[in-house]
Structures are given as C-alpha cells and as structure tokens.
C-alpha cells in the first residue's frame, strides 16, 4: 500500500515509518526537520521510502505537497496524520498566540492534508485517514490548554466525518493514545507508558481493521476514563505528580 505519514521525523510517526517500510509498503514521510528525515532515510536505505519537508500548518504548503505527489501519480491509500506540538501555553501566563499556533498545527494541520487528499480518495473510491488523538481531551491537561483543545476539536470533527464517508469507502479513524514514551510525553517511564514502536504496532492494526475510534493502550486509557469519576481537584493533583 501507499501510505503518507505526517510527523515522521520522531516519536510514533518515525517508528510507524520503520515498520511500514519493513513490511514493504511505499511510504512518504512528512515533517519540518530535514536532518531528522535524512537520518531516517539513511537508516532505512529503501527506495520505497521518500520524505518531504512540509509545515502542515500552512494550507498552501500542505496543498502543494499533496499536489506534487499526485502529479507523480503517487496517491496514498492511507494518510496517518500525527504531526503535532505540545508546548505549555498556560505557564507563566496564558499565551494566546501560542494557543493559536497549537490549534493551527494539531487541528488545521490535519485538515489541510485531509482537504487536499479527500477529492482523490473520492475519485479512487477508497482511502483511510488516521488521526492521532489524545486522552487529554477528556480531562484537559496540567501542561497546556491548546493541546487538549486541539485534540478535542480533532476528535469531534473526525467522529462527524466518519459516518458521512463510510458508505463511500473512505474511513476516518482516530486512535486515542494514553501516554507513550516519546519526547512529547514529559512524564515518568512506567509500565503504563508503551514505546513508540508499540504505539506504531497498534496503528498497523487500525490500518488492517479500520474503526472510527480506538484506544491504546487499553490499561492507561481505561484508567483515564475511569478517572472521570474523580473530582477535578484530585485529578489535577495526581497528574501534576506524574509530571517530572
Ligand atoms: N507521546 C504521547 O504520549 C502521545 C499521547 C497522545 C497522543 N499523541 C499524539 O501522537 C502523535 C505523535 O506524537 P509523538 O509523541 O510521536 O511526538 P513527537 O515525537 O514530538 O512527534 C511529533 C511529530 O510532529 C511533527 N510536526 C510538528 N509540527 C509539525 C508541523 N507544523 N508540520 C509538520 N510536522 C510537524 C514533528 O516533526 P518536526 O518537528 O520535524 O516538524 C514530529 O515528527 C501526535 O499527534 C500526538 O499528539 C502522543
């Protein structure tokens, strides 16, 4: 299959690219940092893997990227949309420009790519978009406001699009992750935090069996959902304890 992966330069996206290329898929990896993409190209040394530098937050750049792939007759079967940032926009004070930037990357960055690809998926009468969601949508985060806000809007939009396009054989899937051991997760390593390779493995399962919403890993995401029964104050205290 042909698979486009945004956020390919590190973490879960990088691990996913490694596994997809090992399974003989044709992969285009997208991110902003060329040195990290170059390192991955060197590591994989595969003609089935190419990279493109692209800031998905910029609508024109994202459209040009997709169009340039289509011109080369490279229409993906699947787009895994993982590009995201999680800076702290509430300490020492609420930072509105940063809040907007997070929304631009994590929410619009996903939909710039979806908007560019959807007409081609409709023409070929198949396709799958996989967005990477977060449990932060359920309780907010002690680390910032923009990130949970962006992921909440992403989830709501993906959930709305999924039933609309299913009859057209286009799947909108969201994988909701608990903490995964990447640079984005600033908490402690524990048995509750799988590696990016394990997270990538789970995305492969969703590729083979598309479903609108899925949770990974089961234990931490179930505990998190159970935590909705806790008072907010206690939850905030416990989550701050978990951060470094
Ligand atoms: N790790 C966790 O605990 C966790 C939990 C829940 C959900 N998730 C989600 O999983 C996904 C992957 O996160 P991760 O943990 O693997 O984090 P990560 O290692 O920081 O990866 C984020 C990726 O997004 C790319 N990116 C950021 N801004 C971009 C932009 N404007 N345009 C293009 N690419 C951009 C980064 O590459 P460049 O900097 O090179 O552009 C990087 O490759 C994210 O959507 C995240 O929200 C992670």
UniProtKB/TrEMBL annotation:
Gene3D superfamilies: NAD(P)-binding Rossmann-like Domain. It comes from the Bacteria. Belongs to the short-chain dehydrogenases/reductases (SDR) family. It holds the Pfam family adh_short. The lineage of its organism: Bacteria, Candidatus Uhriibacteriota. GO terms for molecular function: oxidoreductase activity. InterPro entries: NAD(P)-bd_dom_sf, SDR_fam. Keywords: Oxidoreductase. This is Short-chain dehydrogenase. One of its GO terms (cellular component) is membrane.
